[in-house]
Amino acid sequence: MSTEHEELYSQRKERLDRASALKEPDRVPVTGGFGFFSAKYAGISHHEFLFDYEKASNAVIKTAVDFSYDTAGSVSRLGALPFTLAFLRDYDGLAPVWVNGPIHDILGVRYARFPGRELAEDAPFQFIGEEYMKVEEYDELIEDPRRYLVEKLLPRSCRSLENPGSSKAMASLFKWGVESRKSLEASRRLGAELKRLGFPSYSSGFSYAPLDFIGDYLRDVKNVLLDTFRVPEKIKQAAVAVGALIMEMNKIAAKTAPEGTRAFIPLHLNEYFSPKQYNEFYWPTLKQVALDLIDLGFIPLIFYEGYHDAHLETILELPKGKTVSKFEKTDLKKAKEIIGDHSCIIGGPPSSLFIGGTPAKMEEYVKNLMEDVKQGGGFIMSPSVSIPASAKPENVKALMDAVKKYGVY
Amino acid sequence: MNAIVELDEPTALELAAQMVESGTAPVDILEQCRNGMSIVGEKFESGDFFLSEMIMAAEIFNQVMDLIRPQLRKTTSESKGKIVFGTVEGDVHDIGKNIIIALLEAEGFEVIDLGVDVPPAMIVEAIKEHEPDIVGMSSLLTVAIESTKKTVDAIVEAGLREKVKIIIGGGRIDAYAAEYIKPDASSDNAAHGVRLCLEFMGGDKV
Q1: Residue B206 domain-assigned (yes or no)
Q2: Over its length of 206 residues, how does chain B's per-residue pLDDT go in tens digits?
Q3: What angle do CA A31, A36, A37 make, to 5 degrees?
Q4: Same domain, yes or no, for B31 and B114?
Q5: B184 touches A at CB < 8 Å
Q6: Which chain B residues contact residue A356 at CB under 8 A?
Q7: Looking at beta carbons, which residues of chain A come within 8 Å of B172?
Q8: A-interface mutation test, from B168, B176, B180, B187, most A Cβ less than 10 A away
Q9: Is any Cβ of chain B less than 8 angstroms from the Cβ of A272?
Q10: DSSP output for B134-189
Q11: Is residue B77 part of a domain?
């Protein structure tokens, strides 16, 4: 690391850590989340971004260096939590599982659609939930969730694992292991290179809201919502059972994660619920997972997708300064009023502003937002989801320029 | 129909079945459902109901509709307007689309549902074939901002822009997106979207 990069690294890390600890840094930090924008910007297709590790890494590096936010982006890949949970007790540590292009080819993951496969060459990948678990199977899931995942979900959600024990299934798992090693090494090389260039990583841990696991991977969003009316007791018991498995995962992750590692938890069902339903079906097990992570030395970084305005007060039930709260469409000014001195807030421009806006509009957005949320620290600027592929580069640049202008303390 | 507003699925379906059996005119059953859905829509807009309640209400409404549809076809009721509706290309999410379609049908609109992942050319063809008053486009994904714009552009190119009102909505559709795409109206709230459609038709419920 050159001295200049070392200095940048510690400045950025300090900035992010201070804001996360509810203090004022030198200026509001700006985190990456460049997503598929990196591919478009570097001139490679979405397909290449997901299938070619070297091209993808180079795209991430080029984007990080050119726009110089406080963190870099990452190579996109889909989660594979059912596998992590299924392998928990028989793998040495946490299995490094995710779904990228080559792994999708090997497993035939039914919940994933990839560019150059099910989608056009230049489309972002998609997660498509389906009803892999029937409503009659709740008891089976509650009885032994890990067994249910191994015996029912994996064969149903991956074409290559349709017949467990078949030579095709076994060969696929073997190929998957080999590919995961390559992918993991590429990922480590990228991380090291970004660090050398002065970019700290903001979060490296991961966890999940139990009810979202049921909605995303087992019952599908619509069904899980209908289940809250039709089989309310079953769904509560299932969330508790899945939650126990997720906490078992947290415990294993904690063995190798340094104290203070931020664990990212993306929420999906939160905005669908009224406060009454949120507090009855969703929050109890999410809260338990978050408290468990805090006990283990993690900082939960919870991404409250969509509108979370109606549930903001619940964040106060988690210990002060021990969580980070990222918002998408929630009113950030209101969030600052309610949780501003309790949990660091992350938020910023919507995708539409990156796509259809202008640098002047971006500047105006940042100026107004800074007036609402900057005071007293505890705020990090970030695209509301991630920067979309069709964002105009001048708008991506304008965000950082505007924060340097209006976000200094 | 209180059972719809109370989201009491078993009671709502039982009552509807009893009414069908006892010879109640399907239009009367429909009318009650519409009243129920109208209250549901109001509760959603005022913040009493959230999406999960909307999804449950739409599910009940659709089941009752399935029950009375065979009879309903035989009678003609006046439509408040014709709408072609679809989730745009590149997006297969239909929860939002199905909620607003249920509310629109309950309100008395005739809805032609083109489904999900609908290419611009298919929407243009549907406008030519059905000559709707309104075209509705729904989506969830960020990528849909571009597809929605492409679809509006295709309608302009086909020379059909003046013939229809366009309304867009969905997870990533906000004021910035609307400024970019240039529809006649946009919303990310289904009940509000229905009111906008009524306004297009010069409706009274504004």
Answers
A1: no
A2: 789 999 999 999 999 999 999 999 888 898 899 899 999 999 999 999 999 999 999 999 999 999 888 777 666 567 899 999 999 999 999 999 999 999 999 999 999 999 999 999 999 999 999 999 999 999 999 989 999 999 999 999 999 999 999 999 998 999 999 999 999 999 989 999 999 999 999 865 44
A3: 65
A4: no
A5: no
A6: 145, 176-177, 179-181
A7: 350-352, 385
A8: B176
A9: yes
A10: EEEEEE-STTHHHHHHHHHHHHHHTT-GGG-EEEEEETT--HHHHHHH--SEEES-
A11: no
Write phi, then psi, for A59 (nearest 5 degrees). Answer: -65, -40
ipTM of the complex: 0.92
**pLDDT (tens digit, 9 = 90+) per residue, A26-70?**
999 999 889 999 999 999 999 999 999 999 999 999 999 999 999
Interatomic CA distance for residues A69 and A29, integer angstroms: 8
At what angle are helices B190-200 and B26-45 packed, to 10 degrees?
Answer: 120
Chain A residues closer than 8 Å to B56 by CB: 225-226, 229
All structural domains of chain A with their residue ranges: 33-67+76-140+153-198
Which residue range(s) make up the domain with B187?
82-200
Q: Which residue of B has its CA nearest to A230?
A: B9
A385 touches chain B (CB under 8 A): yes
B101 shares its domain with B6 = no
| Domain boundary, last residue among B45, B72, B99 | B72
Per DSSP, the residues of A136-171 read: GGHHHHHH-HHHHIIIIIHHHHBGGGSSTTSHHHHH
Q: Say if A191 is an interface residue toward chain B (CB within 8 Å).
A: no
How many domains does one find in chain B?
Answer: 2
- Say whether A351 and B172 touch across the interface (CB within 8 A): yes
Both B16 and B89 in a single domain? no
Token duo for residue B188: 């990310």
CB nearest to B50's CB, from A229, A273, A357: A273
Domain match, B47 and B95 both? no
Last residue of a domain, one of B18, B42, B72: B72
Question: Taking a contact as any Cβ pair under 8 Å apart, which residues of chain B between 1 and 60 contact chain A?
Answer: 7, 9, 47-53, 55-56, 59
Same domain for B148 and B57 = no
Nearest-neighbour CA in chain A from B53: distance (Å) = 8
Answer for the pair A300, A265: CB distance below 8 angstroms, yes or no: yes
